[in-house]
Amino acid sequence: MADTSVRPWTRPHDWAEVVLGLVALLSPLWMDTTDGAMWTMIILGALVTLDGLASLAMPGMVYGEMVQIVMGVLMFISPWVIGYTEMNGIAWTSWIVGALIVIAGGAALPIAQEAHRSGMAGQH
Predict the structure, then answer these.
(1) What is the pTM of this model?
(2) In Å, what is the CA distance from 48 to each residue of 71, 88, 93, 98, 100?
(3) Which end of the chain is less packed: N or C, by CB atoms within 10 Å?
C-alpha cells in the first residue's frame, strides 16, 4: 500500500472523492432544487472534485485530505444551513455525499501522511 500511496493517480480514496464531487456538482440536473441548494451543490461539488484531482496528482498533499473532510462536513450540514431540508432528493444527496466525502477523506488522510513522509525523506 505504501508503494501505491506515493504514485500519482493511483489512490482509490481520491478517485472516490472526485466521483462524489461530480455527483454533487451534477445532481441539480436531475433533482428539484432551490437556487440556494443548486449553487451549494455546484460550488461544493466543484471544489471537492478539484481538490480530489489535486490530491491524485500530488499524493503527499496532506492538507488536501483535511480540506476534503471540511467540505464534506459543509455539504452534510448545508440542507439545514441553506434551508432545503424539505426537498428530500437534494437534501439526502447532500447528507449521503457529504458523509461519504468525510469518510473518504478520513481514510485517505493517513495514506497522504505516509506519502508525504516518504516523499520528503528523499528530499533532505
Answers:
(1) 0.86
(2) 7, 22, 14, 10, 12
(3) C
Hey, what long-range contacts does 12-16 have (CB within 8 A, 24 or more apart)?
Answer: 13/104, 13/105, 13/107, 13/108, 13/111, 14/52, 14/55, 14/56, 14/104, 14/108, 15/52, 15/56, 16/52, 16/100, 16/104
CA 12 from centroid of its chain's CA atoms? 12
Calculate mean pLDDT across residues 33-38: 96
- Tens-digit pLDDT profile for residues 74-115: 999 999 999 999 999 999 999 999 999 999 999 888 887 787
Cell of 75: 455539504
